[in-house]
Amino acid sequence: MSRSVPAVSGFFIALLLLPVQAAGQAAVEAGLGAAASSTGAAGAKGVGKAIGGIFQQLDETLKPAASRSTAKPAARRAPAGKTAAVRDPLPPAATPPAPTYEDPLQIQKGIASDELLRRFGPPAMQIAGGYDLQTMTYIAGGAVVQLELQAGKVISVSKPAESRQ
């Protein structure tokens, strides 16, 4: 029993002294960690301001113009001197009427390609072949008229059966 008393008392003394040393070590490490984080935070401070500025500019851009500024635009002054004469604005240009073309069912052999385009308009489809050969397709009221042109003249006309002449 005499040996156990010093062992137990030594154990209690160790329990009392070790936390003091451990607390000192913890304080030193906490200080080092705080120093490192404050160094990083100082660098990030500028980044935070930049991001905040970007969002502020975005907010101002997205706001309606009326809520951004209540200032009125400056009044326009009339020019003086020779340039003071106000010209009448030109009337808006009238759009030309859509061209009207003849019925493609009336296309006959021998018509030149320039006359064909002038009278019947551009084809719905046009395919260029070899030896100056072209195939043109016109659509007239649901009917398909197919032409073959060679050397700029219509050499063949294919029309629906009921409208052939």
Short summary:
This protein is of the alpha+beta class and 165 residues long. 43% of the residues lie in helices and 16% in strands.
Search tags:
165 residues, alpha+beta, Beta-lactamase Inhibitory Protein, Chain:B, domain 1, 2 domains, 4-stranded antiparallel sheet, 3 helices, elongated
Explain this structure.
The protein contains three helices and four strands; from the N terminus they run αααββββ. A four-stranded antiparallel beta sheet has the order 1-2-3-4, with no helix packed on it. The model has no long low-confidence stretch (mean pLDDT 75). The longest helix has 59 residues, at 4-62. It has helices at residues 4-62, 65-68, 113-120; strands at 125-128, 133-140, 143-150, 153-158.
Strands, helices and their partners?
Blueprint: H1 4-62, H2 65-68, H3 113-120, E1 125-128, E2 133-140, E3 143-150, E4 153-158
Antiparallel strand pairs: 1-2, 2-3, 3-4
**Count of discrete domains:** 2
Percentage of β-strand residues: 15-25%
Query: What is the subunit organization of this protein?
Result: single chain
> What value does the average pLDDT take?
75
Helical content band:
40-55%
Q: How would you describe the shape?
A: elongated
Helix/strand-derived class?
A: alpha+beta
Determine the number of helices (DSSP H or I, runs of at least 4 residues).
3
Distance separating the two termini: 137 Å
Major β-sheet profile: 4 strands, antiparallel
What order do the SSEs take from the amino end to the carboxyl end, as H and E? HHHEEEE
Count every beta strand, where a strand is a DSSP E run of 2 or more residues: 4
Instruction: Provide the low-confidence segments as ranges.
Output: none
Gyration radius, in Å: 47 Å
| Spatial strand arrangement across the major sheet | 1-2-3-4
